[in-house]
Specification:
With 289 residues, this protein is mostly helical. It contains 13 helices and four strands.
Length: 289
């Protein structure tokens, strides 16, 4: 149902499967579970983050809702599941200087004309320059590469297609990559008969971060996507345009970046406002007292 009616992506389907199988391992056959059984799950999930509990509860509620809709059950025991008020954390981002360090390292390595280094530069340009998700990037078909128009056609979550711009820098990096790319049909970034995996992309980025003298835990495909969004917003991009570029179905998801920008502005005031020095002097006096 999730695949056919909602167009859920493969990663989403896998996550739902893991949550349902984990619950069944804990309390037994889910189709026959009762309210008391599901109440036990709340206790078992006591050490998990609220966001994880919320995700697991959501998967089970949708599962039991499906059973009721299909007539497999008359009752819905999911009312016993916890409903934590999960606060959405602010996304991690990179500063302009950190992004610059990544590109400087990637460009330096690409000058050696090694295919792997040129591929890394093209991947980096599309992650930060177009804000693609990791899965969207690695699964790009070769046919998605623009010929005349500087746009990529991307298939996002739920099979939704959107157009994203490709900067002149990214076009140049793609041209370099296409010149050394293995001559095989299918994907833009082929690997072992299919395409580069998300896991390998994560590994490559973290390895690049280390070579650029950046903390490896700070760099990931999603962090670069966050940096793309935040830096565009800082530059005056419209929120609705950003929503389209990121492929968000709900603008509420995009609005998280306004909070990031607000946090940056508060930090800027605290650091640069003339009264900041007065505050520091007051703090020092309080310490002495």
């Amino acid at each position: 149902m999730l695949a056919a009616e909602r167009g859920a992506a493969a990663n989403t389907l896998a996550a739902y499967r893991r949550d349902l199988e984990g619950a069944e391992d804990a309390i037994g056959r889910l189709c026959a579970a009762q309210t008391d059984d599901l109440a036990q799950l709340g206790k078992l999930w006591g050490d998990l983050a609220p966001s994880s509990v919320a995700r697991k509860s959501s998967a089970l509620r949708q599962f039991f809702g499906f059973l009721v809709d299909e007539g497999s059950r008359k009752d819905d025991p999911s009312t016993a599941l916890p409903r934590p008020a999960a606060r959405r954390p602010l996304p991690k981002i990179l500063t302009h200087q950190q992004v610059g360090a990544l590109f400087k390292q990637a460009e330096s390595e690409a000058e050696g004309s090694k295919p792997a280094a040129i591929r890394m530069l093209a991947l980096l340009e599309l992650l930060y320059g177009s804000g693609l998700r990791a899965t969207e990037l690695v699964s790009l078909p070769l046919s998605a590469v623009p010929r005349d128009a500087p746009m990529l056609t991307v298939t996002g979550k739920g099979g939704a297609a959107r157009m994203v711009p490709v900067s002149q820098r990214a076009q140049k990096a793609l041209s370099l990559w296409l010149a050394v790319r293995p001559d095989v049909p299918g994907y833009l970034f082929p690997s072992r008969g299919k395409h580069l995996t998300r896991v390998r992309l994560f590994q490559m980025l973290k390895e690049l971060a280390v070579r650029a003298d950046l903390p490896r835990e700070k760099v990931s495909p999603h962090v670069l996507r966050h940096a793309f969004a935040t830096h565009l917003l800082e530059g005056g991009a419209d929120l609705r345009v950003l929503q389209t570029l990121l492929g968000h179905a709900d603008i509420a998801t995009t609005q998280i970046y306004t909070h990031v920008d607000s946090a940056r502005l508060v930090a800027l005031v605290n650091e640069c406002h003339p009264l900041a020095k007065s505050r520091d002097r007051l703090a020092q006096r309080g310490t002495k007292d």
